């Protein structure tokens, strides 16, 4: 009888305990590679648009499930990161920016989110992310040209924040991804940060 009461008590305690919702974790690892390790189509794209840029750094990255390649470069006073899949197709282009380069509409919404979710927060890195329109069958050349010409009809803009701070009982680093309007798309805890790829 005592054993039944004991187990019943345990079940009641577990059912009444608040549910803990696990957040996705960013567990991305990046390794420096040589130019020869990049997909051929990626090199062709880089040579076409940035042939005069000599200091391009190349990386292979994986999160344990997917793999991609990245090129980081400085061009016209801005820092860019171009991510490619294994076939050399551009997945996205990221530009390192400051807070005042976020659109007014998005910055207001993002600021409200940060104030609501964090007691203390420090923005470590902020990037504007360009993603090809899902309905756009254009190749690497068209996509890059659209970005350089600010043809926003053919790509999607997102803002990717890396922050450190305290959110509820959690203290640590977080990656926050917002859409063009400043609405949260994804939030991930950062488990490991590569140090050799920070601009």
What would your notes on this structure say?
The protein is of the alpha+beta class and 199 residues long. The chain has a single domain (23-190), classed as Nuclear Transport Factor 2, Chain: A. Helices cover 24% and strands 40% of the residues. It has four helices and ten strands; from the N terminus they run H-E-E-H-E-E-E-E-H-E-H-E-E-E. A ten-stranded mixed sheet has the order 1-10-9-8-7-6-5-4-3-2. The longest helix has 15 residues, at 2-16.
Draw up the topology in text.
Elements: H1 2-16, E1 25-26, E2 29-33, H2 40-49, E3 57-62, E4 67-75, E5 78-84, E6 90-96, H3 104-117, E7 120-132, H4 140-148, E8 155-167, E9 170-179, E10 184-190
Parallel strand pairs: 1-10
Antiparallel strand pairs: 2-3, 3-4, 4-5, 5-6, 6-7, 7-8, 8-9, 9-10
Concise summary:
This protein has 199 residues and is α+β, with helices and mostly antiparallel strands. The protein contains four helices and ten strands. The chain is globular.
Identify the notable features of this structure and list them briefly.
10-stranded mixed β-sheet, 199 residues, Nuclear Transport Factor 2, Chain: A, 24% helix, 40% strand
Q: What do the pLDDT scores average to?
A: 84
Shape: globular
CATH topology value: Nuclear Transport Factor 2, Chain: A
H/E series: HEEHEEEEHEHEEE
Tell me about the largest β-sheet. 10 strands, mixed
Residue stretches low in confidence (pLDDT < 50, at least 5 long) are: 4-21, 193-199
How far apart the termini lie comes to 65 Å
Query: How many strands?
Result: 10
Helix content: 10-25%
Strand content: 35-45%
CATH class: Alpha Beta
Kindly give the count of domains: 1
CATH 2nd-level architecture: Roll
| Spatial strand sequence of the major β-sheet | 1-10-9-8-7-6-5-4-3-2
Radius of gyration: 21 Å
State the helix count.
4
Helix/strand structural class = alpha+beta
């Amino acid at each position: 009888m005592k054993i039944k009461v004991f187990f019943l008590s345990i079940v009641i305690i577990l059912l009444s305990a608040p549910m803990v919702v696990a957040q996705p974790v960013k567990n991305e690892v990046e390794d420096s590679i040589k130019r020869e390790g990049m997909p051929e189509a990626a090199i062709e794209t880089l040579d076409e648009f940035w042939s005069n840029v000599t200091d391009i750094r190349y990386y292979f990255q994986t999160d344990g499930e997917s793999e991609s390649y990245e090129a980081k470069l400085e061009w016209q006073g801005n820092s860019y990161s171009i991510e490619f899949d294994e076939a050399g197709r551009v997945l996205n282009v990221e530009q390192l920016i400051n807070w005042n380069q976020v659109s007014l509409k998005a910055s207001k919404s993002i600021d409200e989110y940060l104030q609501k979710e964090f007691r203390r927060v420090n923005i470590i890195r902020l990037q504007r992310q360009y993603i090809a329109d899902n309905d756009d069958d254009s190749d690497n050349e068209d996509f890059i040209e659209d970005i350089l010409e600010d043809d926003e009809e053919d790509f999607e803009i997102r803002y990717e924040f890396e922050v450190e701070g305290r959110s509820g009982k959690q203290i640590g680093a977080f990656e926050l991804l917002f859409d063009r309007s400043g609405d949260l798309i994804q939030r991930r805890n950062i488990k490991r940060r590569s140090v050799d790829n920070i601009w």
